[in-house]
User: What shape does this take?
Amino acid sequence: MFYVPLMNSLTIAFQTSIFSLGIGFMLAWLSVRTNTAFKGLLSDTAMIPYALPSWAFALAWITLFKNQRIGGYSGMLQAITGIELPDWIAYGTLPIVVCLSLHYFTLNYNLISDALSNVNAEIEEAAEITGASRLYILRRIVFPVVTPAIFSAFILTFSHSISSFGAPAFLGMPVRYYVMPTMLYSAVMNRLYGDGYALAVILLGIVLCALFINRKVIGTRKSFATVGGTGFRRRVTELRRRRIVGAAAVTFLVTICFLPLGVLLLQTFMRYAGTYSIDNLTLHYWIGASDPSLADGQPGVLLNPGILAAMKNSFTLAFATALITSFVGILIGYLIVKGRGTKISSALDSVAYAPAMIPSITLGAIYLSMYAKPLGPIPPLYGTFGLLVMACTVKTLPTASRAGVSCIMQLGKELEEAAIVTGASWPRRFRAIILPLTRKGFLSSFTLIFMSVMRELTLIVMLVTTATNLLTNLSVRYAEQGYMQHSDAIVSMICGITLVVVLVARRVTAERVVEE
Amino acid sequence: MPEIRIKGVTKEFGETVAVDGVSLDVRNRDFLTLLGPSGCGKTTTLRMIAGLEEPDKGEICFGDRFVFSAEKGVSLPASERRIGFVFQSYALWPHMTCFENIAFGMKVKKMSEQEIRNRVKELMELLHLHGMADRYPSELSGGEQQRVSLARALAMEPEILLLDEPLSNLDAKLRVEMRSEIKRLHHLIGCTCVYVTHDQSEALSMSGTIAIMNKGKVVQVGTPTEIYDQPNSVFVAGFIGAPSTNLLDASISRQSDGTYIDFGFHRIAVTGDARTILSDPKTPSEVVFGTRPEDVIISEKEMTDAFSGDVYSFLYLGTSQVVEVTLPNGNIIRALAPVKERLKIGQPIRIAFKENFHVFDRKSGQAIV
Assistant: This one.
């Protein structure tokens, strides 16, 4: 029963990691190591796909490439050109890998472009003087130095994509193509809890293995930390007339961001899915009142009490989680930095980082099993909003505490010591010195967490109940029931919200740079 | 071992002229230091000698070999110039051991395993790197990293060794130790060295020749003593010397009974050669008077040709002390005084200048005497 989903998951995770690495590496190389045109635009747009949930790509894929064999109406491509795509393009491994790669390559881009920017041109010049060829230098000097980053990126993508629920849910479940997370989900939905938990543990095992291998390989003694202080220069390849590839890269990025969004939006205006003509346009799915002939009488999303309640829930959850976690993150960062070298500090560091190693779907399963019945003095929390906040807080804690650590590190200890000398108590120092000076870090951590909770699906999909519905799981439910326009409209709203938050986050971080 | 001849070399980066028509000869086996404030073009000049940067104009010759000529269209790549280069950041390859770092160039040249091993061993002994062969750069101290980078630069038996602020990343004590180490190496190997630094004491203590650079130009070339004793401009006088040279505005007053340097509050009579030059009416009268702190005498007792000032502060240096004195016009000058003078801040004191002074044209900054 587990074998096929396991193989599917491994295939998808492996291929996604390869593709994401390929795209991420090429873009990183282009933006760091060449003088390509549109460099700034390139590094800006390269971030956007990560802000969009990976299953938004999946939903757009169905809308575009769906064939008529499943679910009646046809996708946009077939409706317009008449070409009916085979199942393997419409559903299953290929589209899931593509959608996940379009989301996760940004992770690779980030890690690798950081590593590449840290390669000092002097180490290449030193090799040049010996007469080594350009290719030899790349092979023997540059690549080895960024290998740890490449490897980490690969492993991270692997462990994220193997536990991703959204894309396989949209692109696999309709044709009974299962991966581990979707299998887990349907097991739990069918009350096969034993199967579900077994899958959760297997998934956890795979991810821990991957991270362990990463640690083993990277954690050797050849730390590639840049040696020496001053004398830093970056190497840039002259592309001359080929500088225009930057334009191609930006076009690619803009296309993969805005084409899916456009497709989703367009679909929401279609009275009947699969018919693309002017007289089929409608605003019904946004602002239409209940009409029994369309979507079984579901009112448009902006008039639909269920969806509005979910929107309120989503905002509340994202806001509460972001607030709590960012604050706790600063606090933990403070404790870790101040206690540096002590056992407590490193223990706290490990504990705060631990949730990052647990696949979201497994974490969800753990919460489900723990709080479905009373746990000691704690009443069963399943079905409460508090449980969602708790799960999301734990999930985002690693991000927040990393941010907290770097904030406090930048702060330096002298500023607080100066306050100690004046006799200020600890709570006073924390309130009057630490918090105000880390507020930029707090804000950027807040926006990041707000965004990731807003689009979180995998973690919460098994924890929500009708009373605590969120936008993300509603979009899945509507799609499952065949109300595609509703699903598209909800996903468009989520994308809109996260994009706005990303823009705000950029403003915040940009201001910080200016202040420094 | 060749001499280096640089003629009219210019390098622009966009709008800024980093190196502006530099001409410079480095004698065979000499140790020449390019010294100047940051941004004066010294590192760019060095990188052009190495072939890491291509000049816009000019020529560079090693012996009778053109390594660069804009006119002839010659530009040898760095690897064919037979140079060794020591980078400011050391630029050790972090993923290679000490041994692999030193051996890399020889492997590129496809030397035999045995030869490589012998040569690396020899270099590691020369640079006191015993037992470090299998360590990675991150496992070495700053001083050891520096030695590895020197060993790597020497591995290919270069005719010319180029060093770009190699000591600037070391702590003060190690820096002084490495100075004598590099000087010893230069003596042992006998290659031509060009050394870039902004640290004047490094330059004065290590060099055979110093070339002072400012704003992309070489402003004075000479031995350390020439540079120290005969600065050819206000810039060099102000840049060289620690504590730094006193520079006072003054005017030349040509009287029937003699020629004087007039500070407003005091004047001193000039004699000898200086008098011949300064009494010439064609010599500019608006000047800058420069004197080193060791040539300023202070005393609580009366001296000939002395004037009064107040002690502003004094800094004890062990064998001597630097005394800062406020002059009647409010300027401050520094004097290097014996420690036996017991001073109090604010006390009046007598000041006199030794005859060992410099006079510069205030307009052009060039030396007159």
